[in-house]
Amino acid sequence: MIAKLKGRLDSTGLDHAIIDVGGVGYLVGASSRTLAALGSIGEAVTIHTEMLVAADSIRLVGFARAEERDWYRLLTHVQGVGSRVALAILSALEPLELHRAVAMGDKAMIARANGVGPKLAQRIVNELKDKIGAAPAGGPIGAGGIAILPTGSFAADALSALQNLGFKPHEASTAVAAAEAELGDDASLDALVRLALRKAAK
């Protein structure tokens, strides 16, 4: 499982980048938002990845932030949302905007993405609303009144774990975000879940 690449940006295309890691070029599919965040050709880059293994191929999809990767995983678990559609959604919407749209049932916002019609947008809302917690305004608030959402590598897994234990989406989201803020983005899943459980139980 390739979870992250750290190297030099060799080149970019309309929907991909090539990352040179020790002389090996990795072709990584990506959203337009991630491609724009990578910087200039030749610069050092770190990109979070998801490895897709099929019967006849192995592909990498890359993300500038772990938060985007977490959303990609959530989106591709929705029936009818493949890799291409998930990347189109992440190209059209920031993770914060997507979180708000799903939490508030704003299917029109999600349908702004290429390849997403009203029916698919509604399905995305229906299937993800209970998994992602309250709208961002309900989470811990940072500077400027912007909500702090769980964004690290294991955020989605930790949220799922707490909800499976019976915590409400809003409670789980708030607890995981608080635990992540205390432990940092590199915390292990086990540590994140343990601390989030303590915070949610208070």
TrEMBL record:
In its UniProt record, which GO terms are filed under biological process? DNA recombination; DNA repair
Q: Where is the Helix-hairpin-helix DNA-binding motif class domain?
A: 73-92, 108-127
Q: Which GO terms describe its cellular component?
A: cytoplasm; Holliday junction helicase complex; Holliday junction resolvase complex
Q: Does the keyword Glycoprotein apply?
A: no
Q: Where in the cell is it found?
A: Cytoplasm
Q: Does the keyword ATP-binding apply?
A: yes
Segment Domain I: which positions?
Answer: 1-64
* Entries under Gene3D superfamilies matching the protein: 5' to 3' exonuclease, C-terminal subdomain (1.10.150.20), DNA helicase RuvA subunit, C-terminal domain (1.10.8.10), Nucleic acid-binding proteins (2.40.50.140)
Recorded GO MF terms: ATP binding; four-way junction DNA binding; four-way junction helicase activity
Q: Which InterPro entries match?
A: DNA_helicase_Holl-junc_RuvA_I (IPR013849), Hlx-hairpin-Hlx_DNA-bd_motif (IPR003583), NA-bd_OB-fold (IPR012340), RuvA (IPR000085), RuvA_2-like (IPR010994), RuvA_C (IPR011114), RuvA_C_sf (IPR036267)
- Which Pfam families is this protein grouped with? HHH_5 (PF14520), RuvA_C (PF07499), RuvA_N (PF01330)
Show the segment(s) annotated as Domain III: 154-202
Q: Which UniProt keywords apply?
A: ATP-binding, Cytoplasm, DNA damage, DNA recombination, DNA repair, DNA-binding, Helicase, Hydrolase, Nucleotide-binding
Query: What does the UniProt function comment say about this protein?
Result: The RuvA-RuvB-RuvC complex processes Holliday junction (HJ) DNA during genetic recombination and DNA repair, while the RuvA-RuvB complex plays an important role in the rescue of blocked DNA replication forks via replication fork reversal (RFR). RuvA specifically binds to HJ cruciform DNA, conferring on it an open structure. The RuvB hexamer acts as an ATP-dependent pump, pulling dsDNA into and through the RuvAB complex. HJ branch migration allows RuvC to scan DNA until it finds its consensus sequence, where it cleaves and resolves the cruciform DNA.
Q: Which NCBIfam families match?
A: ruvA
Q: Which HAMAP family match?
A: DNA_HJ_migration_RuvA
Any domain commentary? Has three domains with a flexible linker between the domains II and III and assumes an 'L' shape. Domain III is highly mobile and contacts RuvB.
Subunit structure comment from the entry = Homotetramer. Forms an RuvA(8)-RuvB(12)-Holliday junction (HJ) complex. HJ DNA is sandwiched between 2 RuvA tetramers; dsDNA enters through RuvA and exits via RuvB. An RuvB hexamer assembles on each DNA strand where it exits the tetramer. Each RuvB hexamer is contacted by two RuvA subunits (via domain III) on 2 adjacent RuvB subunits; this complex drives branch migration. In the full resolvosome a probable DNA-RuvA(4)-RuvB(12)-RuvC(2) complex forms which resolves the HJ.
In the record, the note on similarity to other proteins reads: Belongs to the RuvA family.
Q: What is the protein name given in its UniProt record?
A: Holliday junction branch migration complex subunit RuvA
| Organism of provenance | Sphingobium indicum BiD32
Gene encoding this chain?
A: ruvA
